[in-house]
Amino acid sequence: MLRLCLTLICLCAAAPALPGAWPRGAGQGFAALAARVADGTLPSEPSYRGSLYLDYGVTPRSGLTLELDTARGRVVKALGFYRLSLLPPQGAWQIDAALGAGRLDGVAAVSPRLTLGRSFRLRGAPGWAEAMLGAEITRTDQAGKIDLTLGLAPTPRMRSYVQLFAYRARGGTLHLRGESSLAVRLTNRLWFDTGLSTGITPDRDYRLKLGIWTEF
Predict the structure, then answer these.
(1) Cα 47 from Cα 81, distance rounded (Å)
(2) pTM score, two decimals?
(3) Are 201 and 174 within 8 A, CB to CB?
(4) Which of 64, 80, 83, 120 sits at a 20 to 30 Å CA gap from 31?
């Protein structure tokens, strides 16, 4: 399956721990594990989806990333990336280029990506905005995706963010979904992340997200 992921904007939650255009830093790692539970409205939708994200800094401006998604007891996405920051990591603006390879729905795939990021402050609270353009490519199919996220860290122990996801397979219907999330720090390195998402078009369903993050 050829998926063309145009993740054009991902305004991620305001926190360096979250995945984004900013390099992790040499020897620094990040891991996120999440589960999404469907409300059963759509018979075709798996009742449970799991995801794992791993990111590790190799040098101050490069890193390795692994993305895994599961549904119905099998791995539907497994992609590994090499990432390179094209601008100095201290700047407010960041550009990240990544090249990934792996499998999508059991089919070999490659995935180039380019991400633009901008840090900001809103009434003293730190945050960032991102725009990611990418492609997940196999021999037979393609799909486009746009993710928009806006988030802030109002306190050192809290991160709040909202997201909009748009997805369209080649020749298929546009799917829109919104999600609102709140992350709370449990320890110095561990965060609890929870959220609720709803389908906007063409289907109206709900999914509960429960996850954890950690830095190492």
Answers:
(1) 28
(2) 0.82
(3) yes
(4) 120
In a domain, 104, yes or no: yes
CATH number reported for the structural domain that contains residue 159 in this entry: 2.40.160.40
pLDDT of residue 19: 53
Pairing label, strands 143-155, 48-59: unpaired
In angstroms, the CA 126 to CA 156 distance is 10
Q: For the ranges 64-78, 122-136, 192-206, which has the lowest average pLDDT?
A: 122-136
CA 210 to chain centre: 15
How many other CB atoms sit within 10 Å of the CB of residue 163? 20
Task: Please work out, in degrees rounded to the nearest 5, the angle formed at the alpha carbon of residue 207 by the alpha carbons of 212 and 191.
Answer: 15
Beta strand extents in 13-61 (DSSP E only):
29-38, 48-59
Six-digit token string for 99: 């090249």
pLDDT at 146 over 90: no
| Residue 5: inside a domain | no
pLDDT value at position 136? 83
Res 98 pLDDT > 50: yes
The whole-angstrom separation of Cα 77 and Cα 92 is 32
